[in-house]
TrEMBL record:
GO terms for cellular component: plasma membrane. Residues 45-100 form the Phage shock protein PspC N-terminal domain. Pfam families: PspC (PF04024), SHOCT (PF09851). The chain crosses the membrane at residues 71-98. Keywords: Cell membrane, Membrane, Transmembrane, Transmembrane helix. It is a single-pass membrane protein. It is found in: Cell membrane. Residues 5-32 form the SHOCT domain. The keyword Transmembrane applies. The lineage of its organism: Bacteria, Pseudomonadati, Pseudomonadota, Betaproteobacteria, Burkholderiales. This is PspC domain-containing protein. It comes from Duganella radicis. It comes from the Bacteria.
Amino acid sequence: MNVAEEIKRLHELHQAGALSDEEFASAKARLLNNEASPLSNDISRLRRSRTDRWLGGVCGGLGRITGVDSWIWRLLFVMFVLTFGFGLAIYILLWIFVPEDELIGN
């Protein structure tokens, strides 16, 4: 469902009395500010970990933003390398293009 359809649905709920004026305005503002998609916010926060790393810190960073342990991400990348062959390429691209965590206090 795109943003226009979601706003239309919100308007219908508002007209039916299911949403108050404040709830409608708040939901519409969230949609227009792209806060309705938490995944896009998480992806923009993706950083390679400086503390939880074996190679580049990619799995540590993925683990931090998804809430999944980093060892599971490492296992997934190894499985992709062994079964499909492209896990290593994805890891290297993430290593290159995902920025590293900033050190706090330095």
